Description:
Blueprint: H1 6-15, E1 20-21, E2 30-31, E3 37-44, E4 50-54, E5 60-61, H2 67-80, E6 88-90, H3 93-99, E7 114-116, H4 117-125, H5 130-141, H6 144-157, E8 191-192, H7 194-207, H8 211-215, E9 219-223, E10 229-233, E11 250-256, E12 260-269, E13 272-281, H9 289-304, E14 305-310, E15 320-322, E16 330-336, E17 339-344, E18 351-358, E19 371-379, E20 393-398, H10 407-416
Helix pairs in contact: 1-9, 2-5, 2-7, 3-5, 4-5, 5-6
Amino acid sequence: MRKVTKQMMAGLMAAGVLASVGTSASAALVDPGLQSTKAGVVVDAQTGQVIADQNGTERLPIASTTKLITMYMVKEAIKSGKISLSQKVKVPEDIAAFSQDLSVANTPMTAEKTYTVQQLIDAMMVPSSNGAALLLANLLGGSQAKFKKMMEAKLESWGIAGVKIYSPSGLTNGDMKKFKDSSADEDVENEMSARELAVVARRLVLDFPDVLKTAQQKTVEFPAVSGGTETMNNTNELLGNETFDLNWLGLKTGTTPNAGGNFVGVTKIQGRPVVSVVLNSGDNADAAAKFNATLTMVKKADDAVKVQKVASGLKPAKNTVSVLTAKDGKISYKTKGTATFFVPAGESATTKAVNAKLSKKITAPLKQNEKLGTAQLESSFAAANDWLTGAPEVELVSVSEEPRANWFATTWRGMFGKSNYDITATK
Length: 427
């Protein structure tokens, strides 16, 4: 493990030292207890289980982490064939002028050149170029205003309603200058909760995992306005940082003028990929605050939990269903498929199948392990049942083969005993 520098250690100590598991301050397993950071979460990237949470539902300024939404929509457009990575994009004069304003993060562009979609992605994700984000928004939406509406609609489709987008790059409305919303105050900016931003990041890395290759680049080359290329550095200072044996795979930084730093990270704890989010950490003068808070939070989560694998074959409390066409008049069912929970490291937890939903079209004969419906999994440790978008589902399958009742039995049951059966389908 790389040694922790004195500056990093001081930052980690300031961020907080002891984990609190399953406290009343958080519905999740771990309360990070971060100082000088308004919100933070750690989420299992695959299942959406919330492992750590501090003020995860309050909407706060998210700054350039907004670019993760823009990135998702660019990837989606590439997948659908609407645009391509090699496509050359002409820069409108107004966006070219905006990109040359170095009072905000930018990679200067000129209207006299074209830039590929790949180059714009690199510029947006690595040095966090605002001009590149605006040009990609223009490419997909035709205008900034239309693309912002598209972003809001995308968020709503993910269950994130009521978010107002002022910028596809994350700048405050006033910093958008010519492109600002004239009906809004200059200091307003995009706001989301840490949990909502985790939903965005999780969608991005699950649907388009190759985005991590982009996010892991420490430097990228970009065409210089005066000719040749210029080297741009990644704003993510955790790349290559092995503090606490954590290997960071991305993802995006953001700094809001009035509320400090933000960071959305991707790493692994105990072999499982996790998404971390910290919002409004420190201030603009302390660029390391968001990274120190992230390291502290993820380390606490790692120390406080363990991975519990759930085997196939769980039986819900009610594990039989009366079926009109079954020879014995009923069918037994169980879960199929394994699952994984994070649970407290020092606790013994069990898992049960709940909220069973069976098809109304079940008919015999049935083979063993034939799908009948779905159920959700629930841990006996309440704080482990905290999910971004709902508990994981597993299949419910038949325990054994079940022959069909003969014609006389099914006819009699259908005529005189139908009310005795949960499922009355005959074909």
